[in-house]
Amino acid sequence: MGRILFLVGRLRERLWVKPLAFCLLAVLGVLAARAADSVAALDALPDISADTVEKLLSIIAASMLAVATFAVASMISAYGSASSTATPRVFPLVVSDDVSQTALSSFIGAFIFSIVALIAVMTGLLGHAGRFIVFMLTLSAFAWVVLTFVRWVDSIARLGRLGATIAKAEAATERALVARRDDPCLGGRPLTEGMTFETPVYSDEIGYVQHIDMGLLQREAERRGCRIAVAAQPGRFNAPGRALAYVSETEEGAADDEGPLEITKAFTIGAARTFEADPRFGLIALSEIASRALSPAVNDPGTAIAVIGAQLRLLSCWVRVDPEATEPEVVSVPRTR
How confident is the model over 25-40, as pLDDT tens digits? Predict the structure, then answer.
């Protein structure tokens, strides 16, 4: 489940995911209208002329293309502003803004719906029940687009601004800090000095550890009858020759040539650090914002003071948890310091 949530979080940083989903919904809406013509119970619906539906769809198609283009230009400008005024490390947080992604997806989805529905109406694929459903869907899409646009205008005015960027970085760091505070060993047991682990596990991948699938490590340890100690927590840079984990075979366990490969599969390694499981990365990003604000070229002590306040709020969330409260497992993880 943890790996699935991690992958879902990565998808939020992709601008094409939501627009694609809205486009599919638009096409499904037209197909549903086409299927409604075969339902006899819908024959009593009002008959909307094809000319009326066609004109309405033409207006929506022409306007949504322009609005979508404007939205893309505004979002790109906001992304550039966030990277230049704050730090490039917060770019994924700005890209994953739900309001902007929903707005862009709504505009593109409404455009695709109007084009597909217009083709269906002009080619005579829709009967009077289908035209009525398309008419109602068009009115609903228009109302949704208007509400989304009003909400998006308020959001885009702040997106990419320094204050909003600091708030996003603080919120992401707080989520990571609270998660690590409540589970300092990532679901494993604390690594104590009395434990010994003989066999290191390496990976040829070069990059930062982004996520650890503790469930996979637990299952592999139970299968082999061994103990596993995690050596690379999220945020650590990995390279060939640096151990990701150490394995200690028990008397009941046996060596397994496939074991190291299965263990490395639990570690997701990427080119950049992420905010979800790496609270230190959020603190570093905030420090970079403050450092840039104090540079001679910017000379903005107010931003540095705001970052200090944000970091103080974050550090106040950090409370050490009693190690005895953690349920013992066969995967050991050093406590975060």
Answer: 989 999 998 888 888 7
